[in-house]
Amino acid sequence: MTETDIPRDVLRSALGLYLDLHAHPELSGAEARTAAVLAGRLEQDGCTVTRGVGGHGVVGVLRNGPGPTVMVRTELDALPVTERTGLPYASTTAGVMHACGHDLHTAAASGALTLLVQSRDTWHGTVILVGQPAEEILTGADAMLADGLYERFGTPDAVLAQHCAPLPAGTVAHGRGPVMSGSVALDVVIHGRGGHAGAPHLAVDPVVTAAAVVLRLQTLVSRETSPTEQVVLTVGSLHAGDRPNVIPDEARLSLSVRAFSDPTLKRLMAAVERIVRAECAASGCPKEPEFTVTSQSAVLMPDAAVSLLARQSHEEAFGPHRVTDWPGSTATEDFPRFAADGVPTAYWILGATGVRQWRAAGDGITPVPPNHSPEFAPDVRNALPAGITAMAAATLRVLQAPSDTKGKT
Ligand SMILES: [Zn+2]
Ligand SMILES: [Zn+2]
């Protein structure tokens, strides 16, 4: 299967879906319209469709005789970002944008499903297309699984997904290890003792303590982690006080830690707590600090055997020169949840950047707008056919593979 095998009407229909979803983005947990549009498409293609699985989750089941079950996962949600692409099909919803390309993934998955319907005499088994809500807040996969995704629709033999990124449109990239890092997000409260700005000796200033904490936390990456290991720590929010002449009672920090192994994440979280407690003690804080984990995602480590099948199908479909290696990124995903109970997964990166933008970025001055940027604008004319082909080819390959080549590793 190659891109030239996509019938014109299938491509046009998938492009229509992309443009529609892009113009009408919805935030995590509020994907009612997006879910309805996808469900309608899946019904048109002959799937048995269930709505409202784990929130606005959509499950389309396409049965084609006995054989393996392959689940294709896409995401429905957009981001609280104000679009600045200037595209004619830009978001019509103020302050909301498909800035992570979930519209592209959904259009590609839907197009791939249509191709699988049209080629159903070449394969046997079941394809389940899952439209997952609330990926950006890392809760949608859990919610669908908790709502009985595998019990109600069957535990799949493999789960496949793709995610676009700033790579040349028309290429795909596969990891040889972890594809994305695991992460922990943490809220911290530092308790000082409020007072008058003119009498700091009578207070314990949590602003100074918080500032020391933020700086000291940087040493977890620069001084406590091996230079060969990839780790990121970002304090994304820091709030304390609201007057220049009042020392506040407390300071609040939110931070995220990312790493490529669970032991490293655990080590970093313990070190964060150690530093915060020690800085509070150094400042003489009257009360111990508080810690609340607000979200967590596992390292995205796809199954080697299923990933190899997907990669082989892509090398055949695109030619090896359009399939590159992915070094792993410090973005995070809740996709690893679908690997619950040893279900094998494959996950690859879909290039989304147009040639002109890619070349302009070569000067090192004009960076390619990345995912989550208000200027993120996939080159849909090249990325969408590649995304449809990548998903259809990989799904077909897994459906047709002898069962011992996709053992649960
Ligand atoms: Zn995202
Ligand atoms: Zn995303």
List the helices and strands and how they pair.
Elements: H1 8-23, H2 32-44, E1 48-53, E2 57-64, E3 69-75, H3 102-118, E4 125-132, H4 140-146, H5 149-153, E5 158-168, E6 172-175, E7 182-191, E8 195-196, H6 206-217, H7 219-222, E9 231-240, E10 246-247, E11 250-259, H8 262-283, E12 290-297, H9 304-318, E13 323-326, E14 345-353, H10 355-361, H11 380-400
Helix pairs in contact: 1-3, 1-11, 3-11, 6-8, 9-11
List keywords for this structure.
eight-stranded mixed beta sheet; 11 helices; binds zinc ion; Alpha-Beta Plaits; 2 domains; 409 residues; 14 strands; alpha/beta; Aminopeptidase; elongated
Helix content: 25-40%
CATH C-level label of the largest domain: Alpha Beta
The largest sheet has its strands arranged as: 1-2-4-3-5-14-6-13
Helix/strand structural class: alpha/beta
Low-confidence stretches: none
The helix/strand series, from N terminus to C terminus, equals HHEEEHEHHEEEEHHEEEHEHEEHH
* Count of helix runs: 11
Radius of gyration: 23 Å
- Distinct compounds present: zinc ion
In terms of quaternary structure, what is this?
single chain
Q: Would you mind describing this structure in some detail?
A:
The protein has 409 residues and is an alpha/beta fold. The protein has two domains: 3-180 and 300-406, Aminopeptidase; 182-296, 2-Layer Sandwich (Alpha-Beta Plaits). It is built from eleven helices and 14 strands. It has helices at 8-23, 32-44, 102-118, 140-146, 149-153, 206-217, 219-222, 262-283, 304-318, 355-361, 380-400, and strands at residues 48-53, 57-64, 69-75, 125-132, 158-168, 172-175, 182-191, 195-196, 231-240, 246-247, 250-259, 290-297, 323-326, 345-353. The strands form three sheets. It has an eight-stranded mixed β-sheet with strand order 1-2-4-3-5-14-6-13, with helices on both faces. Strands 9-11-7-12 form a four-stranded antiparallel β-sheet, with helices on one face. The structure holds zinc ion (ZN) (2 copies). One zinc ion binds next to loops.
